[in-house]
Amino acid sequence: MEPQVSEIIGGTSAQGTANKNNIIIGGSVTGNVTGSEGKIGSENNNIKVAGNVGGTVIGGKTDSGLASNNKISITGTTKGHIIGDQILDPNGQTSGNQITANGNVDGNIYDGYNQATQKVQGSNNTITLSGNLTKVTGNIQVGDKTSNSGYPKHKYQEPSNPRR
User: Fold this and answer.
1) Residue 14 burial by CB count (10 A; 0-12/13-18/19+): exposed, middle or buried?
2) How far apart are CA 150 and CA 159, in angstroms?
3) pTM here?
4) Of 136, 134, 92, residue with least CA distance to 113
5) Count of Cβ atoms closer than 10 Å to residue 153 Cβ
6) 72 near 56, Cβ under 8 Å?
7) pLDDT recorded at residue 121
8) Nearest to 89 by CA among 67, 57, 72, 111
9) CB-based contacts of 135: which residues, under 8 Å, 6+ apart?
10) What is the DSSP letter of 5?
11) For position 42, what pLDDT does the model report?
12) Which residues of the chain have a pLDDT value below 50?
């Protein structure tokens, strides 16, 4: 029996930034995959999923500061959400993050997610849906612009504040 991988985190920093981690998934991970978790920043992480991920894929996660230039490429299957970057500080910034989905996504795709405000926000974040993408079961939201490459059947929701 092959060993089960339940979670992958590329790098962590309890007091500083967690940057420049590369993760390639060719097999299976039963839980979440995170490029990095930093206290004051998470930048320049790359995740490529050619296999299967049973949880959420997050390019970079930080308590405060900047989450930027994280890249996620999905050609396999994910059973959770894809989040380009996630920040906990309501005043934190996300920018320059990229998600490309060519596989199956059983969840939402968010690029520029602020967990404190529960909003998708940021600048120069992009989501591209292309290739062999056959399904996205959730919403697609980006903190800047979205390219759906001719897949109008997928749910698309402009970033908004539902509590207006």
Assistant:
1) exposed
2) 20
3) 0.85
4) 92
5) 10
6) no
7) 87
8) 67
9) 104, 105, 106, 154
10) P
11) 96
12) 145-164
